Amino acid sequence: QVQLVESGGGLVQAGGSLRLTCAASGSISRINAMAWYRQAPGKQRELVAAIASGGYTNYADFVKGRFTISRDNAKNTVYLQMNSLKAEDTGLYYCNADVINSYGGGPFRYWGQGTQVTVSS
């Protein structure tokens, strides 16, 4: 089994910064892509940023220039540095990972439980 645990969310004023962390653990042989999504109240979940195992990144237009995704493959961890936060960035932030398990199966996509980010204006 594989678990993803997010941390780093919280309450911040507009213009501030937060750094989210998502650590994967369990029966992992390799992780392909990792990504951050978010879901605001009453809205659908949307992609924020993604990163391939080799480091190629992809960002939603609404975070370009403000957010940076990175990963540490040795730690099976992905990060999201969020700067210049806006009230509209408020939501529950989820990470996911496409995992090849220890038995060679997959990739399978796993999700974390989410971490709340609230930006006050």
Secondary-structure-derived class: mainly beta
String of helices and strands: EEEEEEEEEEE
In total, the number of strands is 11
Determine the N-to-C terminus distance: 40 Å
Q: Unreliable runs, pLDDT <50, ≥5 residues?
A: none
Counting DSSP H or I runs of 4 or more residues, the number of helices is 0
The average pLDDT value, as a whole number, equals 97
Cα-based radius of gyration, to the nearest Å:
14 Å
The biggest beta sheet reads: 7 strands, mixed
- Strand % is over 45%
The helicity comes to under 10%
Instruction: Give the overall form.
Output: elongated
Structure description:
- The structure is a single chain.
- The chain has strands at residues 2-7, 10-13, 18-26, 28-39, 46-51, 57-59, 67-72, 77-82, 91-101, 108-111, 115-120.
- It has 121 residues and is mainly β.
- The strands form 2 sheets. Strands 2, 4, 5, 6, 9, 10 and 11 form a 7-stranded mixed beta sheet that branches. A 4-stranded antiparallel beta sheet has the order 1-3-8-7, with no helix packed on it.
- The chain is elongated, with a radius of gyration of 14 Å.
- The N and C termini lie far apart (40 Å).
Concise overview:
With 121 residues, the chain is mainly beta. Helix content is 0%, strand content 60%. The chain contains no helices and 11 strands.
Search tags:
4-stranded antiparallel β-sheet; 7-stranded mixed β-sheet; mainly beta; elongated; 0% helix; 121 residues; single chain
